[in-house]
Design goal:
Blueprint (H helix, E strand, L loop, with lengths): L2 E10 L4 E9 L2 E10 L15 E10 L3 E7 L7 E3 L13 E3 L1 E3 L13 E3 L1 H11 L4 E6 L1
């Protein structure tokens, strides 16, 4: 595997975890993204982020998310994905990438002063463009 992803969790808030996802190719920094995950709730299915550790990631496609990635080997969990989304309610324990962290605020969801990931669809397209192999490794810390 020539690609390694490193997810660094920076902010641990009540309803979300914000972080950075760095992509390395052959040891050279190749891309940088921001992430939103659920908070730690003892690895409980659909309501918790996954534990820190080293996992494999593979490319995957579904009608719901298009081209995305699946994180493999998570203890007691399956179908942990890296897919597009902006808010905590867009994930059931998956990792949402974005190009920035901002308080998005929309007409139906006014800004609340808490950051979300923005430009997640663009980030997913970029991740799919950068990671050219079927499998990679992700280190979550």
């Amino acid at each position: 595997m020539n690609f390694k992803l490193v997810l660094i969790r920076d902010e641990h808030l009540k309803d979300r975890t914000l972080g950075r996802l760095i992509v390395f190719r052959e040891g050279i920094k190749y891309g940088n993204f921001y992430t939103l995950e659920l908070p730690w709730r003892d690895n409980a299915k659909n309501i918790s982020r996954i534990p820190e550790g080293v996992y494999k990631v593979r490319k995957r496609y579904s009608q719901r998310f298009g081209n995305h990635f699946e994180v493999l080997g998570v203890p007691d969990r399956t179908l942990i994905l890296i897919h597009k989304g902006n808010f905590p309610e867009d994930t059931d324990g998956c990792i949402l990438p974005g190009l920035s962290l901002v308080d998005i605020g929309t007409k139906s969801r006014p800004g609340d002063g808490i950051k979300e990931v923005a430009y997640s669809g663009v980030a997913m397209k970029e991740l799919n463009r950068l990671i050219t192999e079927e499998e990679a490794e992700i280190i979550i810390c």
